[in-house]
């Protein structure tokens, strides 16, 4: 499903997706003794003492049916054997454009009410649940269960493996995001500041800032060593050593999450070699993807491969195994190898097994967001990294590990920040397909 999909083919895939979703909900609701479930899209939060609202993204299980990220205060009623009932909040308003629905296949499969009020639809007799950002008082007034864990867990598990429709959407999101990455790289090499790079990204990927699935990380020089760097300098540095860009896109609710790192005209030659090494390491890790592979094992393999790279580039003077054992590799890469991807950037059910039992990350790797075995249909990110982060490396100086690190090389690279290379990959029955197009 990694090729371009025509509009008619996408409509067919979406109808199949919705039919399978209806069947899955029917089975889950019946098994749990429920006559239906209300899905609430959610609502934005106002800033304190203001009438301005924060950016908003709809509840994931609501988007699983509709793909609508921006619909606020809307309700979806799902019942076994019944057409979904969709109440869209569309008040008369001269301050804002009222909500409307797209010309997509899912619209014809729902009973739709465009409503001026945001009250939930009237429920028939029976036992119901409500999911989403709903107050306990409202749930009590409706006489329904609020976010019951067994139902939420079952629905989360249903999002772990993506349908062909979802994979097509993820592929489209990746295509748009990569167009932005190419433009951002050009802006960097032409001398742009972080803000210029972000604006180039938004323009080429055809999206506004509030539509991003997450705030772009645009780290020039040492800022690339701040894993979730959150600012955009408005003036370029005197010397452009590096750019780390972690930026995505949404298509029909589905997220791309791509990271690239580039050496600038002022880069140390060792940094360019490290980028090549991390890129090659990432490709080897991707080639190992297949059903049944334990993602925790892949994460451990990443650390061994990182130890090998550090030794090859003379940043450490010990064996790869010693670099891992002494905590050196974790100082150079403190985050996990990747995570599940879908309607949420860090998608649901990454740290439980198929029965909902917890699968906590290893004690040494608390940031690892995916701890289960891979299955066909999963979409995951693969994002090894290598960073020069002073606060993590400094504690190693006084111990045995400090004697194995080339501190002069570390100092040379400190103002380059770091390297992360991230692709989005779907697990197939026989291996994998990389959804991220080449640069």
UniProtKB/TrEMBL annotation:
Mn(2+) 2 binds at residues 246, 257, 422. GO terms for biological process: proteolysis. It catalyses: Xaa-L-Pro dipeptide + H2O = an L-alpha-amino acid + L-proline. Its EC number is 3.4.13.9. One of its GO terms (cellular component) is cytosol. Mn(2+) 1 binds at residues 257, 339, 383, 422. Its cofactor is Mn(2+). Residues 15-155 form the Xaa-Pro dipeptidase N-terminal domain. The keyword Metal-binding applies. Residues 169-428 form the Peptidase M24 domain. InterPro entries: Creatin/AminoP/Spt16_N, Creatinase/aminopeptidase-like, PepQ_N, Pept_M24, Peptidase_M24B_aminopep-P_CS, X-Pro_dipept-like, X_Pro_dipept. SUPFAM superfamilies: Creatinase/aminopeptidase. One of its GO terms (molecular function) is metal ion binding. Binds 2 manganese ions per subunit. The keyword Protease applies. Keywords: Dipeptidase, Hydrolase, Manganese, Metal-binding, Metalloprotease, Protease. NCBIfam families: PRK13607.1. Splits dipeptides with a prolyl residue in the C-terminal position. Belongs to the peptidase M24B family. Bacterial-type prolidase subfamily. PANTHER family: XAA-PRO AMINOPEPTIDASE 3, XAA-PRO DIPEPTIDASE. This is Xaa-Pro dipeptidase.
